[in-house]
Amino acid sequence: MHTSDVTPISGSVGPGVILAALNLRSMNTPAPAPHGDDLAHLRLIRDVSAMSLTQFSKGFQGKSSGAMLVKAAIELREGYEGKDLPWSSRRIHYWTYNPAKHQVPHVGPFIFPDPDLLSTLIDLYFARRNLYFPILHRPTFERSIAAGLHTRDIIFGSVVLLVCAIASRYSEDMRLQQETEPLRRGWQFYDQLPPHSNHIFETPTVYHLQYYCLAAWFLEFSCPSACWALIGIGLRLAQDVGAHRQREGQPTVESELWKRAFWALVSFDRQISMANGRTCTSQYEDIDADLLIECDDEFWENEDPARAFVQPADKPSLSSFFNCYLRLNNIFAVGLKMLYSLNKTKRLLSYRDQAWEEHIVAELDSALNGWIDQIPPHLRWDPNRPEDAFFDQSAFLYCSYYQVQMIIHRPFIPMMRNGVPTSLPSLGICTNAARSCSLVAETSRLRKKGVPSPEILSSVFTSGVILLLNVWSGKRTGLPPYMNSALTEVHKCMATILVCEKLWQTAGLFYDILHELATIGQLPLPKDVTPPDPAPSNLSKRARENDDEVQVPPTSAPAASHPPTGNIYHPTHSDSASAVNTLPIAHQFGPLPTYTTDLGKMPVFHQSPPRPSESTSSWYPMQSATPFGRPDFVTGVQLPNREADDVFNMDHLFASDVGTAGGIQPCFGE
């Protein structure tokens, strides 16, 4: 029998060759026993299967998923109190309602809104969604509608319907409130979309990519699994026409629209993959498409070709935000791939470097520091910025930035890590990034006076859970949960989420989780964090109808018929100025910390005095009944396999934070 010789890996070859060699050789060797980290998703699947109460946790949930983070917070609190969470605040409607089950099959031509309403919805879409993800070119889009293309071309007509569906959630026009269920706002347009997929046999057009972008955005907070699948289809179609590759020649309207749609799909794929703990469809190293031309829509076209796509030097471009966001998103993608990979990948990365994780994190931190230094002046955080559009973009950008910091350092928080402690000050970095994110979100909420900001929901929820890890890990510090100032910051996150829950279903679910984890005995929540009581009719309806038909309580008073939309969702300059003047919260802590080293050096725990009226006798009441059972992702959860006295030993938390924040230097210099 012939046995081939295995050539030793030479120390003179480059790291890329070494990595490839190790990867290839691992394919010809027996697979090692599964690592505990790689089996975490199986425990989560068992939890989900044990109690299928929510559609949101169906399907695979990996290491980076929000469910994993929430489980850690629940285990920490239940271990602290020595009992299961009662889950008495859980509103079953947000956990079980599925708007897709109420779809009405549509036959015949598309039904578009009345012309005046269509115009209003287009205004809202470009003001509230295209502001962040500019996949549409407004002059071209409106010319096509004026020419009636949406009545002749089924794909472009679908794009128009999706624009209407997305914008409907920002409008109080009574013509859009025919649905008795607020969580189905906009579905009257989505329901008309053709269910067949014959277009996959056609050559993709830019309208196809726009269709998948918009469909995914509409379903993001109601059907996340469908959203994830739609993004994958859109990216495959983009690759089919080479949209992921660099192009030659002068820019055109069509070439720029291809780039916009492709990069929107890529960025959204990464975000939704992170939220579910899944692998991204497109990897950074497989893409060399150029970023967007930083030029506003009105300057794309010009009779003089030399002046086309030229932004006036004295006018910052709205599209600068998306390029800035994409650069952050690229850093995030590298961190997601490296730090949340399977253990077999980590074995390759650890070859000849057992401290590889710390080195990777140092490089990521260095990249983030470089990114923050390059933010354009008009997008830097300024709570007093007079331009509403740039303020909104800046708030989203900084919330996203702090979320990326939390994602990078989350695996190294002691209560999330089962392994050798690291020298990384990750607990401090995550906690203070969460504090900063909550401050940005609170400033935005107060300035916008109730206008929802669903684009920051993921960042704000992540911040809330990270802060709750802080609240419930203070046993050995002598700081009771009710004295921890992080609880106040959790309330800020809840207030931001509460504004969105009427029309964005996941917001209600996020709120319930934070509410349950942040409730300490009978201490009341702040007024702006408490949802209104349901109307009596809805309470009786809840008692006699199936859970899937329960109506959520309204979060605001009904609007008058055909209100002036601009007064609701397009604040004037004077409105913004007056809102800014009433925001002392934005200046309580001075400038926002941005560099990772700054966040790592800040205190982890802050103490706040109790309110005089609070009584310690009701902090930890006896366990109450759980009306709807425990959520899927915590059913059957076991506490960490450690001695009871050691479960909340905080010494190792502070030991891992000793020294200068970010003490490990980047491998290849700044």
TrEMBL record:
Region entry Disordered, spans: 523-575
Domain Xylanolytic transcriptional activator regulatory as annotated: residue spans: 227-298
Composition-biased stretches (Low complexity): 553-565
Signal keyword on record: no
Keyword terms, alphabetized: Nucleus
Gene Ontology MF, one: DNA binding
Gene Ontology biological process terms in this record: DNA-templated transcription
Pfam family, one: Fungal_trans
PANTHER family to which the protein is assigned, alphabetical: TRANSCRIPTION FACTOR PDR1, ZN(2)-C6 FUNGAL-TYPE DOMAIN-CONTAINING PROTEIN
Protein name according to UniProt: Zn(2)-C6 fungal-type domain-containing protein
Species assigned in the record: Mycena sanguinolenta
Lineage start: Eukaryota, Fungi, Dikarya, Basidiomycota, Agaricomycotina
